[in-house]
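Milestone M4 deliverable, item 7.
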Amino acid sequence: MSLMESINIGSHALKAHGLRLDIHAKNIANIDTPNYVRRIPVLNASEDISFHGLMNAMKEDVFGCGTLPYLQGGVTFNGCVEDPTPGERIYSPGHPDADANGYIRSSNVNAMVDMADAIMAQRAYEANLALVNISKSMAAKAVEIGR
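Output delivered:
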């Protein structure tokens, strides 16, 4: 893997985890918004690096003689899904969003869960930022050695 490829993987991960952090921040901001449905970010590996995926890649490369295929790696952001957990029903007949029986549905956001997820996203973002910075310093050292 070249230095540019490692910087590319790190930059894709920075974007994905930044979007993930934004979604958790929006969830926390809408914790008291009636009828708000919590959104869950979906991240996937760029390539299938499971055992089954590796075996299929090796099977297709018959002349590779059992060598592991080169995988670029990385993560991609694939949008969001809505949390199916229903929010609590609150009796509020004067509320504009109330149903025929006078109930509104509160947000299904759990602050503790979203805070923990946001902290994990922040740490993943910081780790990938460190990866990019280390790759940049390695490239600078290589240029310095080449002089």
